[in-house]
Amino acid sequence: MPTSLFYPAIATGLVLALLVSIYTDLKTREISNWVVVAASVWGLLVWTVFHGFSGLGTSAAGGFASFSIFLLMAMLGNLGMGDVKLMGAMGCLLGWPLAITGVLHTVISGSVFAILWVLFSKKLWTTLKNLYTITVSWLLPGRKRVQLQELETSSLPYGVAIAVGGIWTLAAVKIPAFDLFRLIF
Questions:
Q1: pLDDT higher than threshold 80 for residue 146
Q2: Domains of the chain: total
Q3: CA 150 to CA 139: how far, in whole Å?
Q4: Neighbours of 179 (CB within 10 A)
Q5: Quick check: is 143 in a domain?
Q6: 163 CB-side CA count, 13 A
Q7: Domain region containing 36
């Protein structure tokens, strides 16, 4: 199989999965398991067809790394498991070590998206009060530590940030100046 088809196969699978995930996340605040499974299988398959068993390992390592990093974030109460699984699928498609670049781009995209979401959803005051409450409860001795789940919050469709991070990473493959990971490290 010609290797010139590798990038288009990976990019097409990732973009399709991300577009469907944006739609479902905005509409229902969920990311469909069938999209995650299909994207993961596609990534593992494409990497294996083009690069043999080493490609399978590269894809699996990328999926494991992305999934693990976002699982830690979810355990802190910041993300839903659909976001974690979508990052795992993105990692399978990008492969190791590009998956780490995808994580960095996604975290940066998510930070910017969260700020914009707070501003445009008119939740700035609530967010600032929550930030103050959590900070004071964790820093001052003798106070009960307040958890994020105890406060009034609105959910953020993080699938949008994952999509921006994924597309940013695909662009960085073709335009190295877009690759923040290489610029920073």
A1: no
A2: 1
A3: 17
A4: 18
A5: no
A6: 19
A7: 3-114+158-184
